[in-house]
Write a structure and sequence with these properties.
This protein has 153 residues and is mainly alpha-helical. 58% of the residues lie in helices and 5% in strands. It has one domain: Winged helix-like DNA-binding domain superfamily/Winged helix DNA-binding domain (Arc Repressor Mutant, subunit A, Orthogonal Bundle). It is built from six helices and two strands. The protein has a two-stranded antiparallel ribbon. Strand 1 and strand 2 form a beta hairpin. This is Rrf2 family transcriptional regulator.
Length: 153
């Protein structure tokens, strides 16, 4: 089953935007994300509606962050993406007649709900600023190891 990697992709794009001095075009973000500019525009539209990013048309236009990195949590981004399912697993039958399957569904549903609640709470404590700080530390260490000043992104 194919995994939903939109959260990971969007976080990647947002960190590139945070590290960039000006707006980034859909084409530039698509290059960073190894995808198509149309996919970037479609994904960013949901983030724009949530106020997480802004877009400007024209010669110097592109995408910019709409809020301070400290004010954006992974939960905010997850919600802006339409709260995609956390798990690819699910019940075989949502309304079973079999009592065994009812017991299985109850156990799975309770467990999935508990784990998803914990994950969403954790997402609410992680900010883009924290991810950007981690990236900055990794970049500094990379530069120190290689003696090069490239961006390593």
């Amino acid at each position: 089953m194919k995994r939903d990697s939109r959260l990971s992709s969007v976080l990647h794009a947002l960190l590139h935007m945070a590290a960039n001095d000006g707006p980034m075009t859909s084409e530039a973000l698509a290059h960073c994300m190894n995808t198509n500019p149309v996919v970037v525009r479609r994904t960013m539209a949901g983030l724009r509606e949530a106020g997480l990013v802004r877009s400007e048309k024209g010669h110097n236009g592109g995408w910019t962050l709409g809020r301070d990195l400290n004010a954006v949590t992974l939960r905010d981004i997850h919600m802006a993406l339409g709260e995609p399912a956390i798990f690819a697993m699910g019940n075989r039958n949502e309304a079973p007649q079999c009592l065994v399957e009812q017991a299985v569904n109850t156990a799975l549903d309770d467990t999935f709900h508990e784990i998803e609640t914990l994950l969403i709470e954790r997402f609410g404590r992680l900010t883009l600023a924290q991810l950007a700080e981690d990236f900055a530390r990794r970049l500094a260490a990379h530069r120190q190891q290689t003696g090069k000043q490239e961006n390593a992104v």
